[in-house]
Design goal:
By secondary structure, this protein is α+β, with helices and mostly antiparallel strands. 29% of the residues lie in helices and 36% in strands. It folds into two domains: 1-30; 33-186. The chain contains three helices and eight strands. Strands 1, 2, 3, 4, 5, 6, 7 and 8 form an eight-stranded mixed sheet that branches. Strand 2 (80-90) and strand 3 (95-106) form a beta hairpin. The longest helix is centred in the first third of the chain and has 29 residues, at 2-30. It is globular, with a radius of gyration of 19 Å.
Length: 188
C-alpha cells in the first residue's frame, strides 16, 4: 500500500510539472517577449496581453534602456519587499511625498521597481497594506516594469525599472488603474 501511495504521488508531481511547462510554453508562444523568467503559474494570457496594449512588444536587451514595453519577471516572496521612501512635504499635494519601491533579488542581482513619480505617503502606505494582504503565505510574486537600467557596482548588479504592477496567486495591484487584467484596457 505504501509503495502504491508513493507511486501515485510521483505520478501527480510529474503531471503537475508537465501542466506547468505547457502553461509556460503557451504564454511564451503567444507573447515571446513579455516574460523574462518562470511565472510559477501566476500569470495568464491577459496579464501579458495588457503589456502589449501599453507598448509594442520588443525583445529584451540590456543595452536598450529606453523601452516602454513592460516585461514580467518573478521572484521568491522571501527575496522581495515593498518600501515607501519618505520624501518632503509638497504644498501642492498638501501631503508628505514618497517613492514606492518594490525590490527583489534573483540570481544574486537586485531588481528595483520604482514608482513613476512621488506619491503621497498615505497612498504608498495603502499600496503596502495591499502588498501584505496579497503576499501573505505566498511563495512567488511576479512584477511588471519598463525602462530598465543596469548598474554594476564592484561585483554587485542592480537593475532599476519603472514599476507597473505586481501579481500573486491571490491577486494583482497596479500603479495605473485598469492594468490588472482589465479586458477593457486592450479594446480598440
Amino acid at each position: 500500500m505504501r509503495k502504491l501511495i508513493i507511486l501515485l504521488l510521483i505520478a501527480c508531481s510529474v503531471s503537475t510539472a508537465d501542466t506547468h511547462q505547457a502553461h509556460l510554453q503557451k504564454l511564451k508562444k503567444e507573447f515571446p517577449y513579455g516574460l523574462l523568467t518562470d511565472d510559477f503559474g501566476i500569470l495568464n494570457m491577459q496579464d501579458l496581453k495588457i503589456n502589449t496594449c501599453i507598448a509594442g512588444p520588443i525583445a529584451f536587451s540590456e543595452q536598450d534602456r529606453i523601452s516602454p514595453y513592460p516585461y514580467w519577471q518573478c521572484f521568491e516572496i522571501r527575496n522581495t519587499k515593498m518600501t515607501c521612501e519618505r520624501g518632503k512635504y509638497d504644498p501642492h499635494e498638501k501631503a508628505i511625498m514618497s517613492m514606492l519601491a518594490v525590490s527583489g533579488v534573483r540570481d544574486k542581482e537586485l531588481h528595483e521597481f520604482i514608482s513613476r513619480r512621488p506619491i503621497p505617503l498615505w497612498s504608498c502606505r495603502l499600496y503596502k497594506k495591499d502588498w501584505q494582504r496579497l503576499t501573505k503565505n505566498e511563495t512567488h510574486i511576479c512584477v511588471s516594469g519598463a525602462d530598465h537600467s543596469k548598474e554594476v557596482i564592484g561585483t554587485n548588479i542592480k537593475w532599476t525599472w519603472i514599476f507597473g504592477r505586481y501579481k500573486t496567486r491571490k491577486g494583482c495591484d497596479s500603479y495605473f488603474q485598469g492594468e490588472c487584467a482589465d479586458a477593457r484596457m486592450c479594446e480598440d
